[in-house]
Structure formats: structure tokens, C-alpha cells
Amino acid sequence: MLNWIRSRSSDVVDVFVYIVVLNLAIEYIPSVISESFTLSILTALLLKITLEVVRFLEAPIMQRLKGSSVTPQRAFWASALWALLVGTKLIVLELIAVVFGDYVSLGGFISVTGLVICLILARAGVRWLLSGSTKS
């Protein structure tokens, strides 16, 4: 049980990072709106879950893409990866609209894409910082 909790501690850190990045976006990007801090926390949780599902779906596609040596197969798997990554942004927009209605808005496709990129980079940066600080 303790190992499971320790393995999930990185998920808690991810959610905290997502909350910070999302609230910075709310503050500085006019099209990103949340009516309350509580809703931004719930939005960050929804984004975390969505991005984890995408990572789960992306892994086998990447494996098949890397393992393909025939050009048509590589093109198919590259197209599947592109469709997943683009479709994810549309799914995020729709999920936010369905779950939170007019209380939360992440703007349009471009702002969601930028937000997701920032979330991924911030998450990687914090994980890198934390992994380096434990080795000292």
C-alpha cells in the first residue's frame, strides 16, 4: 500500500503544477476563464486525467510507429498519432464545456494547444528539478 501511495505522489505533484500553470493562464490569457479557484482545481484534475489517458493511448501508437519499417505503415501510424494529438485538444475543449459549462473556458484550439504544451513542459521541469534535488 505504501509503495502505491509513493508512486501516486508524482500524480499529486502533477496536479499542483497543473493548478499553477492553469491559474497563470487564467490570469494572463483573456480567453482562458475560470469563475473560481475551486473550478480551476477541478479543471486541473480533469486535465490530468485526460492527459494520462492520452499518454496511455499514445504509447502503443508510438511503439508501432517506431517498429514500422514499411513507409505506408509508418504513414498510417504517424497519421494515427497526429489524429490522437489533435483530437485530444478538441476532446479537452468539449469535456470542459460539458462538465463546467460557462463557468470555465479554455479559449479555442490554439489556446488549449499552448496550455497543454505548457502543462507538459512544466510537469517535466518540476519532475526534473525534484529528481535532481533528491540525488544531492
Q: Report low-confidence residues grouped into runs of 5 or more.
A: none
Estimate the helix proportion, in percent: over 70%
Q: Reading side by side through the largest sheet, how are the strands ordered?
A: 1-2
Q: What's the mean pLDDT score?
A: 87
Write down the domain tally: 1
Number of strands: 2
Could you name the key traits of this structure?
single chain; two-stranded antiparallel sheet; mainly alpha; globular; 4 helices; 85% helix; 136 residues
Topology readout:
Elements: H1 2-28, E1 32-34, H2 37-67, H3 71-100, E2 104-106, H4 109-135
Antiparallel strand pairs: 1-2
What report would you give on this structure?
The protein is mainly α. It has one domain. The protein contains four helices and two strands. It has a two-stranded antiparallel sheet with strand order 1-2. Helix 1 packs across helix 4 and helix 3 crosses helix 4. The longest helix is centred in the middle third of the chain and has 31 residues. The protein starts with a helix and ends with a helix. 15% of the residues are buried.
Give a quick summary of the entry:
This protein is 85% helix and 4% strand. It has helices at residues 2-28, 37-67, 71-100, 109-135, and strands at residues 32-34, 104-106. Helix 3 packs across helix 4.
